[in-house]
């Protein structure tokens, strides 16, 4: 009997033996604290080019062939399960090319963040069920012109970032297949361009194509797919040779071996072996209230120069004459020839002209320092220390910062500031004061008891709990027989320790979820200080703490969890996000609206898998006349032009069921005046001006909290300005003339109702003329007056809302 119920086994005895082996038992009896809660994840693979998908031609030359890579994956069992029950296609948004726009019907073009897009159906691939009971649905979006990475330009980075941007709401994670020559440059650039990233992005490729019998492509792609679909690692990363690195820390170090990449100044984030070992304490998470945003304005006028013995003054001066920024690769720990006054003078003249020069070491490993006189000479010449940034990262960061609408002094400051984990110095994290919540103080008391017990064990040098911040796995409960055996072999004390460990592993997540449900920020603060891995822990319904806080309308608790790194995009067993529960909880009022705005400002959107539920709720709301809920749904970003199976929209439903207050509200919503646009900005969480309650540098780390009226805050305000405009508000262009399957518009239904009323009034008047008894005549008169009032009200609705100056009624 198979004890791993989530794993579908064939009747093949060998496969059964495999799943019941000790090695696999070790894997399936551990769990990740930050795996995706849902059992099915959607991943978009952008195939930009590179060796991984090439085919050997008859001339013995590798070259890309259209659809060859996808078709090859479809034949490989580890990449595609042909017996899956999912759709064989998947929708992807693609950018409309200018030369194609004239041939595409306008109804098929969708505007996403001012980008014209069109939906395309691509082949869907579905992985077999993993040892953790999860599947991955993914597709390959193959670029029309595959890029040899040696030909890569800044425009290609913008294209890749844009493709992620327009598909951000459709997929849980992204993989970029890329040539190895400039992969480290792209990983660094994208890490800065993708601001407030809340989803996993992995770059990978191979040294040998997938089509070859012996290759590294299988391990690299399968490893990247596994991490992207199982774990929440909201960074731009690079996966190669069983290791996942932070993207902006990588360098290509080998052109001929499979271990082509390394991260010299930082250990890998993930190592794959029999187990998947994630260093959770090193994983970055969004810790501010801000939406995902792509910065596309990169400065091209930058350059790289390496010092070498004998470099001439004229060469250096000429090189520095026409650039805005330079990365200078100096010797050792950031040294230059301090006896060469001409060289130092050329550098000083350049920095005085406003050229930003970043000093990085030529060494593969190490950092820049001014401990030597030769290093201090460069600092005195106005160069900015790149610390332990790689050259690839320094170039990308310089291009990114010079592309922002900020002062040169701000650029110099930000070069030295850790924005995306590119520097070794640890950034400051939010510090929260002690919270007092007497109603749930028992949680804090229990936590203190657990901490005290663990501290005592360490002091007595007994076996204690493993430090959960260094690993992604926590052992599940062993079988009774295993426990008894362990108890007998290792003695009574060790048995007690194991029991305590199991109790903690059951109790701590339970306390965490209780604290989130009850709004106990004090308890959450204590829990996450001791066990930070709990932040995205999910219950049996796969609901995280943020799901539970949103369900119970806890505004401050939700804000606390988001700032501590709780992901807003996770879905529960019903495929619902925290945003759904914030909208549908049983509360109402300003606090609920603030909670919805908080989530939207943090980048929360409805998942593609819950859009059907959103549509059904919209129609039910319009039918029942629940204006308050409709407002909440619209402010959360629900598409109010969605149609049902009869081609009706919510205007049809409000008209048919005579919910006039909803029609008036929708009319106001459709008003395109500036005042209404500002109102929508507030409703949709788009700030009219920056909020400086917490001062942040470029959207990743909270560096420090300061008084927003202070002079320092005013200076930093300039730093935070972006040259990219905020996405324009989607003022809803409602389809008032939408025709349903019976060829009727909403106005047609109102006119039909008006005609019915007129007939009833006419019949009532005729009946009154025939009445003889006075009492019956009075009742008929009241009924007729009520109908007349309803008729007048309906006529006013038609005149107010459907008058020609507002909507064409033809």
UniProtKB/TrEMBL annotation:
A Pfam family of the record is Asparaginase
Q: Where is this region: Disordered?
A: 460-500
Query: Record keywords: Repeat included?
Result: yes
Q: Which SMART domains match?
A: ANK, Asparaginase
Q: Which InterPro entries did the record assign?
A: Ankyrin_rpt, Ankyrin_rpt-contain_sf, AsnA_fam, Asp/glu_Ase-like_sf, Asparaginase/glutaminase-like, Asparaginase/glutaminase_AS1, Asparaginase/glutaminase_AS2, Asparaginase_C
What family is reported? In the N-terminal section; belongs to the asparaginase 1 family.
Name the UniProt record assigns to this protein:
asparaginase
Query: Which source organism?
Result: Piromyces finnis
């Amino acid at each position: 009997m198979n004890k791993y119920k989530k794993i579908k086994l064939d009747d093949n005895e060998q496969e059964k033996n495999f799943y019941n082996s000790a090695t696999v038992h070790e894997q399936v009896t551990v769990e990740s604290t930050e795996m995706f809660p849902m059992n099915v994840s959607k991943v978009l693979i952008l195939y930009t080019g590179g060796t991984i998908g090439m085919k050997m031609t008859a001339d013995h030359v590798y070259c890309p062939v259209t659809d060859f890579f996808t078709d090859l994956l479809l034949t490989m069992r580890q990449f595609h399960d042909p017996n899956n029950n999912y759709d064989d296609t998947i929708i992807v948004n693609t950018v409309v090319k200018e030369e194609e726009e004239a041939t595409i019907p306008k109804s098929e073009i969708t505007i996403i963040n001012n980008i014209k897009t069109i939906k395309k159906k691509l082949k869907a691939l579905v992985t077999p069920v993993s040892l953790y009971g999860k599947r991955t649905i993914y597709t390959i979006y193959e670029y029309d012109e595959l890029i040899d990475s040696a030909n890569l330009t800044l425009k290609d980075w913008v294209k890749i970032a844009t493709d992620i941007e327009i598909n951000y709401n459709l997929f849980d994670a992204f993989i970029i297949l890329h040539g190895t020559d400039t992969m480290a440059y792209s990983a660094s650039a994208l890490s800065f361009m993708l601001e407030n990233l809340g989803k996993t992005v992995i770059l990978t490729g191979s040294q040998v194509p997938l089509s070859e019998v012996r290759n590294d492509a299988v391990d690299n792609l399968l490893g990247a797919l596994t991490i992207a679909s199982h774990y929440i690692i909201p960074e731009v990363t690079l996966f190669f040779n069983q290791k996942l690195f932070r993207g902006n820390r990588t360098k290509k170090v080998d052109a001929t071996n499979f271990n082509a990449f390394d991260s010299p100044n930082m250990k890998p984030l993930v190592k794959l072996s029999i187990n998947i070992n994630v260093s959770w304490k090193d994983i970055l998470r969004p810790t501010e209230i801000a939406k995902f945003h792509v910065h596309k304005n990169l400065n091209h006028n930058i350059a790289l120069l390496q010092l070498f013995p004998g470099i001439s003054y004229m060469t250096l001066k000429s090189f520095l004459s026409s650039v805005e920024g330079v990365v200078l690769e100096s010797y050792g720990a950031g040294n230059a020839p301090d006896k060469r006054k001409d060289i130092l003078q050329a550098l000083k003249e350049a920095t005085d002209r406003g050229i930003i020069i970043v000093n990085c070491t030529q060494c593969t490993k190490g950092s820049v320092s001014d401990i030597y006189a030769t290093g201090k000479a460069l600092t005195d010449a106005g160069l900015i220390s790149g610390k332990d940034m790689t050259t690839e990262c320094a170039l990308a960061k310089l291009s990114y910062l010079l592309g922002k609408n900020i002062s040169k002094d701000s650029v110099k400051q930000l070069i030295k500031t850790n924005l995306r984990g590119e520097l070794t110095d640890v950034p400051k994290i939010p510090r929260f004061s002690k919270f007092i919540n007497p109603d749930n103080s028992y949680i804090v008391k229990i936590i203190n008891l657990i901490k005290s017990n663990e501290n005592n064990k360490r002091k007595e040098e007994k076996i204690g709990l493993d430090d959960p911040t260094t690993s992604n796995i926590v052992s599940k409960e062993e079988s009774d027989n295993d426990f008894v055996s362990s108890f007998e072999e290792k003695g009574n004390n060790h048995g007690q320790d194991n029991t305590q460990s199991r109790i903690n592993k059951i109790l701590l997540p339970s306390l965490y979820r209780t604290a989130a449900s009850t709004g106990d920020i004090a308890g959450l603060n204590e829990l996450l200080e001791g066990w930070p891995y709990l932040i995205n822990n999910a219950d049996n319904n796969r609901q995280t703490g943020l799901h539970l806080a949103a369900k119970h309308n806890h505004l401050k608790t939700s804000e606390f969890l988001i700032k501590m790194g709780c992901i807003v995009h996770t879905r529960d067993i019903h495929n619902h996000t925290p945003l759904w529960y914030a909208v549908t909880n049983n509360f109402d009022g300003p606090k609920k609206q603030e909670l919805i705005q908080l989530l939207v400002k943090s980048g929360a959107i409805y998942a593609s898998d819950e859009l059907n539920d959103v549509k059904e709720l919209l129609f039910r709301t319009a039918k029942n006349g629940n204006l308050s809920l409709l407002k909440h749904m619209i402010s959360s970003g629900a598409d109010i032009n969605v149609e049902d199976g009869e081609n009706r929209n919510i205007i049809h439903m409000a008209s048919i069921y005579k919910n006039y207050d909803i029609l008036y509200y929708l009319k106001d919503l459709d008003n395109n005046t500036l005042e209404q646009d500002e109102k929508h900005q507030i409703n949709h969480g788009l700030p009219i001006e920056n909020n400086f309650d917490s001062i942040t540098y470029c959207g990743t780390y909270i560096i420090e909290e300061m008084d927003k009226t202070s002079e320092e805050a005013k200076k930093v305000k300039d730093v935070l300005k972006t040259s990219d405009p905020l996405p324009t508000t989607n003022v809803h262009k409602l389809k008032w003339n939408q025709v349903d399957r019976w060829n009727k518009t909403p106005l047609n239904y109102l006119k039909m109702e008006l005609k019915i009323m007129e007939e009833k009034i006419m019949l009532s008047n005729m009946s009154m003329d025939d009445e003889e008894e006075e009492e019956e005549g009075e009742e008929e008169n009241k009924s007729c007056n009520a109908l007349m009032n309803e008729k007048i009200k309906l006529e006013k609705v038609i005149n107010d809302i459907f008058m020609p100056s507002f909507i064409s009624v033809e």
